[in-house]
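Title: Prediction job returns without error message
Component: structure pipeline
Severity: low
Priority: P3
Assignee: unassigned

Description:
Job completed but the reporter wants confirmation the result is attached to the right record. Sequence as submitted:
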Amino acid sequence: MIEKNDYLYPPKEVIDILIKLFNQKQFSSLVDHAQKLIRLYPNAFMIWNILGVTNKNLGKIDEASSSFRKVIKLNPKFAEGYNNLAIICQDQGKFNEAIKLFKKALLLKPNSAIYYNNIGLVFQDLGKFDQAVKAYNTSLSFNPKNAETYFYLGNTHQRQGKLTEAIEFFKKALAIKANYVEVQNNIGVAFRDSGELEQAMHAFSKALSLNKNYAQTYNNLGVVLQYQGNLKEAIKSFVKAINIKADYAEAHNNMGNALQEQNKLDQAIKAYKNSILIDPNYAEAHRNLSNLVKYKAENSQITAVKKLLKNPNLSDDDRCKFLYTFAKMKEDLGDFEAAFENYVAGGALRKKLLRYNIKQDKYLFAKIKKIAPILQNFKLHISTEVTKHFPIFILGMPRSGTTLVEQIISMHSKVQGCGELPFLHKFGASLATNFESLNTDNFMDCRNAYLNKLAKVSNGYQFVTDKMPHNFRYLGLIIKLFPEAKIIHVNRDAIATCWSNFKNYFSINGLGYSYSLHDTMEYFKLYKDLMDVWKNLYTDQIYELKYEKLISDQDRETRRLIEYISLDWEFACLSPQKNKRIVRTASQQQVKKKVYKGSSEAWRKFEPYLKIFFEDPHWL
């Protein structure tokens, strides 16, 4: 005979009471009632399961975990128990255990679209994007009209920088569920990262119309406002996000970024620290803080980051950011060997995450070189008589001094500095690499599209700078399309440039070569070789500016530069550190100081560890 307290399945009305309390969100009452029932039915796994879900909703993670482990012990064939425990492990950062548990759930219930979504989310957190996409696609095979799955696919592609694909997945989600606020929010982020700020603003407006208290949208709206240079409104938006969700670590971090752009460094540091106080594991906030702090041995953040790096459950993305943070700390403390080791390890992870291979750039440069003479000989007649905005292209290797040059030029009263504009790459990349694209209509479409975009960011100024360093790849296209343009090639000492590229973590995803010293050196050679091609083809159409000359003879070189642009001399150009325009490159803090000598010698403190790379004098 089975005793009442041995039942695995208590009477239905018992479970119904618990479910009713759960749906009414009477969680405290549910916990009390469930604990009384467990005394009567200690082996009833369904009661334990409902208790676990309730404790999770109450934030009692340890109690929830204990309940789900009891569920699995009582009924090893209950798939939902493994699924629920896996979600807890995922929340705790125990990703490997979570994957094992989700796989057990799928063995018991192999057609569950939800379980495939859940395991996909873990793979996504680990940066294993191919496996995440495979899991989501399997989920869709069981439930092809699940908006959440398309949302997850969009997020996965977004994290990889595949923004066009991400937007398409988000659109599919919205086609199924039009009032999906999370998707409206994330498609806004994708538009923002694509440079489509107007569409981003529209998406965020739609999201807020669906939920006026959605903190994430205020946070993301703040980032767009920041991109637009409207820092005061950006900070107001971050404050709104924090007022709705006081423990919103990302909003505190982003507010720190906006304050940093205002050069309010003490307030920025405080914002980053608030972010870390809320989420001590927030790698991005740690990294941002490290860029503003000069570390001393007693700084408690050093111990915290060192401990975090020992966590085996860190995602590759977070570990990468912590390695760069720790490298900066060790560099400040004078432990250059440890700093170098951490820069190398951090770079290796970043390269892995970006899936970079130098072969892809070698192939790209080979195509550009092959098409260069054909591009030069193409007959194109362009009238510049009605040109309203004259682009000033400042190009060269990243970290070569392009930001400083733009700061100098944009101090002139007739120049608008616009930073790194993505427009030439967006509209002209195919023209620079594809023979079949070379026709008059495509050339004129590219010219007009670029100039239309330039007009929107020009703020009414006639002279507008475009400081996208990698535009050096499209130099032949620039000369063909914009005969009215001024082209300034900034070049810097090769070792200083390579080292500065290598040691910096770039938030954008397009500098994959910079995370390995070998790749950086190879890329520098590709750059130098391509620049030689351009100089041979266009001898007198490129202004060559040597960074070291600029900082050693600032007055003379600045006057020559302004004369080349055909502007009257203004003394303000000698004080680029007073430029109030927003700078978002790795040079942000450097260019707010007076021009100083010796910056190209900073690599020498790491010289003992760089000899193996640069000891061959003919490496170039």
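Comment from assignee: result matches the submitted record. Strands lie at 390-395, 415-417, 463-466, 486-491, 543-546.
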